[in-house]
């Protein structure tokens, strides 16, 4: 078993994870790879514009001086290995599809109708569609309530997200967006809300309305009190506000977290400490795997490996995080029996 695990981790960057996993069990088909649900993928049709290689878990949010022109990207991507690379132009969806098939991943894919449809057409059966009430990238621009209702009643959408109010400096309990959450509660649609992480480490430059304080998980309390049947996915697990996150989880049993973004963008010890704390505080059945996939196709295999190689998780907890918890949250009728 240990030999297999070593083999798997060594082969990750050679892109042979699923094959090696099957080989370890004496099998040779990807259909035998245990299923994974990624609850946090974005419906990009190209690698994120202007992006480049990324060094997972090597974040150094370096200082800069406001007297000089500040870089918009806070990570040191030059001096590290390994790097994950974007796809060639026109190849992104094809590359991610190959990864999802190889790793047996089904994903909640967030975007507008046209964007998500491209993904559904490219990989039928592997996409759970999600959309939200933000209109494009303009802060404060909203989709009409009627359109959103149509998308969730006849349009086939299953999850309301990614809701990025923090980037607008708004609390999720802000009254101006309450009607959308009321709709989600009425239609019994889970909502996925960005809470915590600041993306590139330069949110103050790239998104001047972003407020760290609006990622405080306890800001969800008023919303949850107003809508007691709302099922909430706290995206990025409210990182780094662990105490407030645990307080919210303890008080509200409909709340789940995803580890997307967080899992690869902070130093590995910090990531493991954060996830371990949530699990060991008693919330292991509410932690869901996610990537925040938007640019680097090999991010999925990399992120799955972090859960599979976490020495603080039991095999059962790994399966719960990689699949069972999301299946329960999303009410898929296929979740594995313990
Ligand atoms: Zn997010």
Structure described in brief:
By secondary structure, the protein is α/β, with parallel strands linked by helices.
Q: How would you describe the overall organization of this protein?
A:
- With 338 residues, this protein is of the alpha/beta class.
- The chain is built from 13 helices and 8 strands.
- The chain folds into 2 domains: 33 residues, no CATH class; 294 residues, TIM Barrel.
- Helices cover 37% and strands 11% of the residues.
- Strand 4, helix 6 and strand 5 form a beta-alpha-beta unit.
- Helix 1 runs antiparallel to helix 2, helix 5 runs parallel beside helix 6 and helix 9 runs parallel beside helix 11.
- The N terminus is likely disordered.
- The chain binds zinc ion.
Predict the CATH topology of the largest domain: TIM Barrel
Proportion of residues in β-strands: 5-15%
- Amino- and carboxy-terminal Cα gap: 21 Å
* Largest sheet composition: 8 strands, parallel
Morphology = globular
Overall pLDDT metric: 87
Rg of Cα set: 19 Å
Order of helices and strands: HHEHEHEHEHEHHEHEHHEHH
Integer count of domains: 2
Can you list the ligands bound to this structure? Answer: zinc ion
CATH architecture of the largest domain: Alpha-Beta Barrel
* Helical coverage, percent range: 25-40%
Keywords:
338 residues; alpha/beta; TIM Barrel; 2 domains; globular; binds zinc ion
């Amino acid at each position: 078993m240990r030999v297999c695990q070593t083999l798997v981790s060594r082969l990750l960057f050679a892109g042979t994870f699923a094959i090696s996993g099957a080989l370890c069990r004496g099998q040779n088909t990807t259909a035998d790879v245990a299923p994974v649900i990624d609850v946090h993928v974005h419906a990009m049709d190209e690698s994120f514009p202007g992006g480049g290689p990324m060094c997972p878990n090597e974040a150094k949010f370096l200082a800069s001086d406001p007297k000089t022109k500040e870089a918009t990207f806070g990570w040191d991507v030059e001096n590290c290995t390994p790097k994950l690379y974007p796809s060639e132009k026109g190849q992104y969806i094809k590359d991610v599809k190959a990864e999802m098939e190889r790793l047996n991943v089904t994903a909640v894919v967030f975007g507008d109708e046209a964007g998500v449809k491209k993904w559904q057409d490219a990989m039928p059966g592997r996409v759970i569609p999600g959309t939200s009430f933000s209109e494009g990238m303009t802060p404060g621009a909203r989709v009409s309530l009627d359109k959103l209702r149509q998308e969730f009643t006849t349009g086939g959408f299953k999850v309301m997200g990614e809701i990025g109010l923090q980037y607008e400096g708004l609390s999720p309990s802000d009254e101006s967006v309450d009607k959308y959450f009321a709709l989600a509660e009425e239609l019994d649609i889970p909502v996925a809300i960005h809470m915590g992480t600041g993306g590139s480490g330069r949110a103050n430059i790239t998104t001047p309305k972003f407020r760290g304080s609006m990622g405080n998980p306890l800001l969800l309390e008023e919303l949850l009190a107003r809508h007691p049947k709302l099922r909430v996915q706290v995206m990025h697990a409210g990182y780094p506000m662990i105490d407030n996150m645990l307080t919210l989880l303890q008080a509200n049993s409909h709340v789940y977290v995803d580890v997307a973004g967080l899992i690869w963008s902070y130093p590995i010890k910090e990531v493991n400490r954060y996830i371990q704390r949530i699990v060991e505080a008693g919330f292991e059945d509410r932690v869901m795997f996610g990537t925040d996939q938007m640019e680097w196709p090999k991010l999925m295999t990399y992120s799955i490996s972090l859960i599979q190689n976490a020495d603080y998780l039991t095999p059962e907890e790994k399966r719960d995080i990689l699949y069972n918890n999301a299946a329960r949250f999303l009410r898929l009728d296929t979740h594995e029996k313990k």
